[in-house]
Amino acid sequence: LRRNPGEAEFHQAVREVFDSLGPVLRKNPRYVDAAVLERLCEPERQIIFRVPWVDDAGRVRINRGFRVEYNSALGPYKGGLRFHPSVYLGIVKFLGFEQIFKNALSGMPIGGGKGGSDFDPRGRSQHEIMRFCQSFMTELYRHLGEYTDVPAGDIGVGQREIGYLFGQYKRITNRYESGVLTGKGISWGGSLVRTEATGYGTVLFANEMLATKGQDLDGRRVTVSGSGNVAIFAIEKATQLGATAVAFSDSSGYVVDEAGVDLELLKEVKLVDRGRAKDYVDRRPGSRLVTDGSIWDVPTDVALPCATQNELDENDARTLLTNGVVAVAEGANMPTTPEALRLFQEAGTLFAPGKAANAGGVATSALEMQQNASRDSWTFEYTEERLADIMRDVHARCAATADEYGRPGDYVVGANIAGFIKVADAMLAQGVI
Ligand code: NDP
Q1: What residues does the Glutamate/phenylalanine/leucine/valine/L-tryptophan dehydrogenase C-terminal domain cover (predicted)?
Q2: What was the ipTM of the complex prediction?
């Protein structure tokens, strides 16, 4: 805490992982002897830079850019860029720390990193976004490369922003290096299923958990917070599997649609028009917008928090449990507070932590890198089957590790220990670096 003052989210993420590791450290003192935990608390490299840009009124604006290259034991640094006014070093470090273990769990040869800026894209014109992305990449490019560091999207960074970032990288380096960014458009090096992968994967993981109890998603009520990339495709996959998505949200409030979310309308409002929750309600009879209270007040069988960190707290967990929730799967990173998590665990609710449940996104990014390296492009069906296999493997690995360490059904412990062992063994093999 003294080395990293004021970085509350980073402390929370580290504590959550380290709390799981007691049994593995007792069994393998070599991790302690080699100071693996201390090393894991210190990113390999942290880059903070000025991002100057000019707004449409001709005013010079300054934002702060970050890239935390956290751990490269398993491969090049890999993790998204977040553009949101709340971004500061503590957020980027928490996300980078989580990413190390998630990437290890995915089974792909990728290390952990994360980046972003306190730039707020909301209300900015397309030209302002482009100029910001170009300025951001004008500094960041020197740290990137397909064998070094490969960013992707996150909150506020979708295919449009990846396009502007890629264009600037190409212009500066004079290289068409497809593998330097993932989340690209299909016609210029992207992978089918990458857009859908995080949301789809989260739902597939939830279904795997339910299957251990002889249940599935068919006929279930599902609540999904957020209405961005992860949330929309979580709703899509849940609907395909026979569930009814009854609520979604954005930062202006939440929408209840008892008839089931109209996915085509939601995509049009959010992905095409870049509109707000209210625009959905205006066009969808029978739905309503709630601007106070919490989306978790809506009675549901399965809760999928897919917006942001610490969005589901103790009170929300109590309400969900009272309303009979059977499973929670985190599409977002660390959306559940530690107090809420404790309540779910005490109640025996199936609970999938983000580093396992949302690993499908980065895993499909690694599939995009494979396609770029072989100059190939796979079909939607083939790529989706690969994603489904990966999610089954991640689920099986977490479940088996939880069993092995005497915590059957505890996916938090399973994910933390399985991810840790893979990274720690690679770090030990590579010496004191
Ligand atoms: P998007 O920017 O596409 O969507 C984010 C959604 O969450 C928006 O609806 C946004 O509402 C809402 N939201 C964000 N911050 C807040 C907040 N502080 N309060 C209320 N609502 C908020 O991001 P993604 O869908 O890509 O990411 C969502 C989560 O999933 C993040 O935690 C991210 O780290 C995680 N994730 C994403 C992956 C990916 O592949 N994209 C991979 C793995 C994890 P509004 O538009 O009003 O701000």
Answers
A1: 191-431
A2: 0.98
